[in-house]
Amino acid sequence: MDKKITIAIDGFSSTGKSTLAKQLARYLGYVYVDTGAMYRAVTLYAMQNGLIGEDFFNREGLIEHLDDITLQFLYNPVLEFAEMYLNEENVEKEIRTLAVSQLVSRVAEVPQVRHKLVEQQKHMGEKKGVVMDGRDIGTVVFPNAELKIFMNATPETRAQRRFKELTGLGQEVTYDEVYKNVVERDYIDTHREDSPLVKADDAIEMDNSNITKQEQLQKVIDIVDKLLAE
């Protein structure tokens, strides 16, 4: 089918946005862009360069270094998705740690960071045929996207999913640590001045607390197929 659309998936942390976006992109043969990975990579850069830590954040220092940060997605045919590269180094594993998760919302609050990454994201989706997930895709990056999904689930459900993911990767974390991180990120993401996490007026909200990934995917595929048939 020649018709292509833009799909924007927003929502709270650990709602499975990236999983759904990857599945949809694979089904449609679309480009998948994980905007969260971009913010995580900038956060990792800040950590590596002593610009942010648990009890400090040199915002001006990070802003001054933004031109030194190059982000790139390179497709991994074995994993069947694009991995995040920071200044030509594969950092896909490093950006998924709890340490990065605990700081990323603070970095994402910085307007200069958001503006830099939003500009790149808009460029990635110029030709449509893209599935992009994040916090402000349907409201800021692609306000005219043909399909907007807003994902939600209870904090307890999301913390349990994230805890299982992190321990599965061999990281030593507790459920309480992960739950606290989920709640803190929710607050920061929804209260920041620049592009806060909100549901777009024309977005379809999906609470996946009690449905399987496959059930969720099928629901969205049915919506997409109807849009493409119009």
UniProtKB/TrEMBL annotation:
- What Pfam families does the database record attribute to this sequence? Cytidylate_kin
A GO molecular function annotation here is: kinase activity
Name where it's found: Cytoplasm
Q: What is its main location?
A: cytoplasm
UniProt keyword annotation of Signal present = no
Q: Could you tell me what reaction this enzyme catalyses?
A: CMP + ATP = CDP + ADP; dCMP + ATP = dCDP + ADP
UniProt: ATP binding residues: G11, F12, S13, S14, T15, G16, K17, S18, T19
Answer yes or no on keyword Lipid metabolism. no
Stretches assigned to the Cytidylate kinase domain = 7-225
- E.C. code: 2.7.4.25
Keywords from the UniProt entry: ATP-binding, Cytoplasm, Kinase, Nucleotide-binding, Transferase
Q: What class of enzyme is it?
A: transferase
Protein family: Belongs to the cytidylate kinase family. Type 1 subfamily.
Name of the featured protein: Cytidylate kinase
Organism in which the protein naturally occurs:
Flavobacterium rhizophilum
